[in-house]
């Protein structure tokens, strides 16, 4: 069971904080709070389904993922139907790190490749990239106990060193 104050990965919301328990209804519920942008959302999540939630990565794992980002392989999954491809990547986002980081890197790579070939990137690339990036930055910021802006700055600095390899 999760403790109050602990950060967890919610499959649909990304990083959430356990803020309490509600046992007044038909089934016991976890009280979760998610933060997306400037908005905070409070939600109830069934304790019986808490196995679908998992803890965020550790500080050590977050540092390892950032350090290894440039060497991280892109996801090679392809499908003739872009809707099925989008579904594949959205499913990966539900699992948290390192999958969210790999999906973000894959979408950046695919957008750049399409542009390099003077083609219009698939519209789903930008949608999935936005969500993967948001979730990655949130989870890394929680794990490293810093702001999301600090995480963004670390990646910008790293990309300046080897911008063409990401």
Mean pLDDT: 93
* Helical fraction: 40-55%
Give the overall silhouette.
globular
Computed over alpha carbons, the radius of gyration is 17 Å
* Low-confidence parts: none
Largest sheet: 5 strands, antiparallel
Q: Structural class, please?
A: alpha+beta
Write the element-wise H/E pattern from the N-terminal end onward.
EEEEEHHHHH
Report the end-to-end length measured between terminal Cα atoms.
38 Å
Spatial sequence of strands, sheet with the most strands: 4-3-2-1-5
The portion of residues forming beta strands comes to: 15-25%
Number of extended strands? 5
Number of helices: 5
SSE layout and pairings?
Blueprint: E1 7-10, E2 14-22, E3 29-36, E4 39-46, E5 54-55, H1 59-67, H2 82-93, H3 99-116, H4 123-144, H5 148-161
Concise account of the structure shown:
This protein has helices spanning 59-67, 82-93, 99-116, 123-144, 148-161, and strands at 7-10, 14-22, 29-36, 39-46, 54-55.
